[in-house]
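Journal club prep — side note

Before the paper discussion, L.F. wants everyone to see what a predicted structure for a comparable chain looks like in token form. Sequence:
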Amino acid sequence: MTPLYIDVHIVHSAPYSNLNRDRQGAPKTATYGGVPRPRLSSQHGRRHSRTHMEEALGMRAVRTRGTPLAVAKRLTGTGWEENTALAAAQMLILAADIKGLGLSDAGGTNALLFLPETAFDSLAAIAEGQRAALTKAAGAAAEAIAAARAKAGADRAESDTNNTDDDADDAAEDEPEAAETGPLAAAYKKIPAADRKKLQAAVLEVLRERNASIAAYGRMLANEAGSTVAGAVQMAHSIATHAGPSQIDFFSAVDDLVHDAGEETGAGHMGDQRYTSATFYRYATVNVRELIKNLDGDTAAAQQVTEAFLRAFPLAIMPAKASGTAPHTIPHLIHVAVRTDRPVNLVGAFETPVPATANGYVPASLDALNAHAAAHARMLGTSRIADHAHVTLSASPFPALGDRLDGIDELITRTLDTITKHTG
């Protein structure tokens, strides 16, 4: 079957802002072409485009460690006792019997799970179906946990005069696993083997469920191949088309009550924040064949997901520090190419940094992208480009980027029409 990819290329100027921070709160950077540049991480872009896409489609996937807690909340809402509900929900995680997937001290899982939002209701329904067995096991676990805690307390009191501080710390660190996970797992294993096998099959079926968001962005659950989904969307880190340092902003805040009293004129608080301004090249690609496969061959659903993504990726608002910078710009150019060979990232247009000019960075960045696309067309030919077009705020022509269209709606419609021709 002929490959089918949608490449989305964007040139986007962001004002003085901090759209994506590192651990120190400074704007993220990357070195490319031998110079440091502002950067927006792919995780950042995927998160915001995914949430906007989900809003458009009316369905969510949830990435969380709190699956047992969410399931327990649903069970208590139907009359389960609170501690029993949590123990039962945690046993469902144990029932999956996935190596490396366990429970945390906070009551959730030790790893993030990425599930359709409906999965919590599905897991609660499984618990309801095995309520008698899970309730009995939860009661046995509670008794064992209470006994283990009592014994640990007695042992600690008896050894206080003999243990060093280091010994006591070691005992405290060992307690949670001995008092929580161990008894819970032991009590679960007392459920008849046939019932545990049914529970495992039912829980794994839920963990393997996928919706549009998971089909597009993928999922990886270590040691459980059935839950792993190769996402149809790949997204690059966005980098500035030019060199650019972060900038330090000194700020102060007034204490209004002190100011009103006229007692002093100094600031109530002072500090430094880091910002940057840059023209970014952003790129993502959609493997249309993979998306259709992930959606069980539903081409209509794949069209809906593709449309939502093509609108979300260019226009998703990245709201970091938005209250103080309002960085709500739109791209200067969106170029979409439908390819029948492989994805092509055009970031090489900016390996040589665009120099600052009296016209800023945008015009030179757009010209560089057009020239690089033309070079690709000469080298690779155009027979594998099923269609390409662009929309732009600029008045300049960009012939290597395909037809110039009036607006994003027309660009999306044209792209979807091309996909339909190749997928039936």
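L.F.'s comment for the group: The first strand starts at residue 5 and ends at 17. Keep this in mind when we get to the figures.
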